[in-house]
Design goal:
The protein is α+β, with helices and mostly antiparallel strands. The chain has a single domain, classed as Beta-grasp domain (Ubiquitin-like (UB roll), Roll). Helices cover 23% and strands 30% of the residues. It is globular, with a radius of gyration of 12 Å. The termini are far apart.
């Protein structure tokens, strides 16, 4: 089981803040994002954008990082300042 968290405009756009689902094998963040698109629908393709930041267990990671059972994976748009 893993927990996926969505923040800021992603939460608003996808109309969900979190979801949990079974996750048996280690796979990359990209594999997870693509699986979410397949399971949840085309509007989830926003997670595939290069500018989306990903954290696993509160550590920012690259798209090639491995997601394992028990992990918490957060997707959020880049932070802007001003």
């Amino acid at each position: 089981m893993i927990k996926v968290l969505l923040f800021a405009r992603l939460r608003e756009q996808l109309e969900v803040g979190s979801l949990s689902f079974d996750w048996a094998d280690d796979a990359t963040v990209d594999v997870l994002a693509n699986q979410l698109v397949q399971q949840q629908g085309a509007n989830w393709q926003v997670l595939l954008a290069d500018e989306i930041v990903v954290a696993i267990n509160q550590q920012v990671v690259g798209r090639d990082a491995l997601v394992s059972a028990g992990d918490e994976v957060a997707f959020f748009p880049p932070v802007t300042g001003g």
